[in-house]
Amino acid sequence: SQELEQSPQSLIVQEGKNLTINCTSSKTLYGLYWYKQKYGEGLIFLMMLQKGGEEKSHEKITAKLDEKKQQSSLHITASQPSHAGIYLCGADARGFGQGGKLIFGQGTELSVKP
Amino acid sequence: EPEVTQTPSHQVTQMGQEVILRCVPISNHLYFYWYRQILGQKVEFLVSFYNNEISEKSEIFDDQFSVERPDGSNFTLKIRSTKLEDSAMYFCASGGRGLAGYNEQFFGPGTRLTVL
Questions:
Q1: Dist. CA A36–CA B68, nearest whole Å
Q2: B49: contact with A, CB 8 A cutoff
Q3: First to last CA, chain B
Q4: How far is A79 from chain B (nearest CA, A)?
Q5: Measured between alpha carbons, how far is A75 from B51 in angstroms, rounded to an integer?
Q6: Residue spans per domain, chain A
Q7: What is the pLDDT of residue A41?
Q8: Which residues of chain A have pLDDT under 70?
Q9: Distance from CA of A80 to the nearest CA of B (A)
Q10: B5-115: which CATH number, 3.40.50.620, 3.40.50.2300, 3.40.50.720, 2.60.40.10?
Q11: What's the sign of the alpha-carbon dihedral B96, B102, B108, B114?
Q12: Which helix (H) or strand (E) covers residue B97, if one does?
């Protein structure tokens, strides 16, 4: 079965600093999702990547999927306290567009110090 | 902006009691899901629902669990006889084809179920 590993597990950065979170899959990724979760709350959809080499940005957050489609990174530029939370990567286990279940990594907890 | 809603936000029940968790998915979506997250653990898949039937279910989703889409708008998860280990945050998600043809999944805010 497919496994997703995120690194680091937790991260504390000073406001204004850049940071990167990684998500590595044991199998080829057919659809890689990034979500943000505040403690005890729901998952907020950030973006979804499907093609090798694809890169998407939303405000100061950029996500990339490597050419081999087994690793994704999430990069935050000039972090702000509002970026604090738990970042989850999820993978479509059956292939994108087929309505398949998502398998999730364990999450990366980000704290941003003012 | 359309969103998935869930009720109640928090449910406390006694072990052995039945609970029904409710969700209203995004209106034009075709795929519906339940996931759960035990405190401190990964979000894990329970069941997916498409075309008025279960399309996939996990090992967790045993005979004590059932799902229903009773009226074309609500999507419910029923646990017939709750156990202590059912205590978790339960998330409903709905999915539809995005502009690029892939399936986007949007999650609700969750129902925190506490079994005493």
A1: 28
A2: no
A3: 37
A4: 25
A5: 38
A6: 4-113
A7: 85
A8: 1-2, 93-99
A9: 23
A10: 2.60.40.10
A11: positive
A12: strand B88-97
Q: Per the structure block, which two tokens stand in for B113? A: 């179920």
> Which of A42, A101, A106 minimises the CB distance to B45?
A101
**What's the pLDDT tens digit per position in A6-27?**
999 999 999 999 999 999 998 8
Token pair recorded at residue B79: 């646990």
Which helix (H) or strand (E) segment is B13 a member of? strand B10-13
- Residue B42's nearest CA partner among A55, A108, A77 is A108
**Chain A to chain B, count of Cβ pairs less than 8 Å apart?**
66
The structural architecture, per CATH, of the domain A4-113 is Sandwich (2.60)
Domain boundaries, chain B: 5-115
> For chain B, which ranges sit under pLDDT 50?
none
Helix (H, G, I), strand (E, B) or coil at B110: coil
CB B51 within 8 A of CB B116: no
